[in-house]
UniProtKB/TrEMBL annotation:
Classification via InterPro entries: UCP008505
Gene source species: Teichococcus aerophilus
Name of protein: DUF4411 family protein
Domain of life: Bacteria
């Protein structure tokens, strides 16, 4: 089975732009169902990035049944995260650069942890960017991790209103 790993921006933009929790709850029920079925997940580090918010999205994510369904249940492999950082961004990032890349390396590392995994992100490829400015799709390409955007995911998993 294919596993889709969601970037923080997928949750954030869905709520802010397309499927507000208070206006289109059916989308969020569907997303929860896809997570329960094991089709979509997000690494704990990405989850924490979004769930810490005090807004309605953060509140939704912190519900125990949502949290349990959405978080990827496997532990993070620190060696793989380090590999993603050193080979994907740069081996000599300074503290400011390291902070700028955020938690994206955890997402790519999770995709490297097993077969048939796709990263789902709203970021757009910008291959000319360097070091901390590199985009998730370009990091994925460097590691041969398949990636798609959120609208492609909705099509693949047959989301309908």
């Amino acid at each position: 089975m294919t596993l889709y790993l969601l970037d923080a921006n997928v949750f954030i933009r869905a709520d802010a732009d397309y499927y507000p929790l208070d206006r289109i709850p059916g989308f969020w029920a569907w997303l929860h169902g896809m997570a329960d079925a094991g089709k979509i997940k997000t690494p704990l580090e990405i989850y924490d990035e979004v769930a810490k918010s005090s807004d309605q999205l953060g509140q939704w994510l912190r519900q125990p049944d949502i949290r349990k369904a959405i978080i990827l249940p496997e532990p993070t492999n620190p060696a793989t995260v380090e590999q993603v950082i050193s080979q994907g961004y740069a081996p000599d990032l300074n503290d400011i650069e390291f902070e700028a890349i955020g938690r994206d390396p955890f997402l790519v590392a999770a995709a490297l942890h097993g077969p048939n995994r796709f990263v789902v992100t709203r970021e757009v490829s910008k291959p000319s960017k360097q070091r901390q400015n590199r985009k998730v799709p370009d990091i994925c390409d460097g590691f041969r991790v398949p990636w798609i955007n959120d609208f492609e995911l909705w099509r693949r998993l047959d989301f309908r209103i």
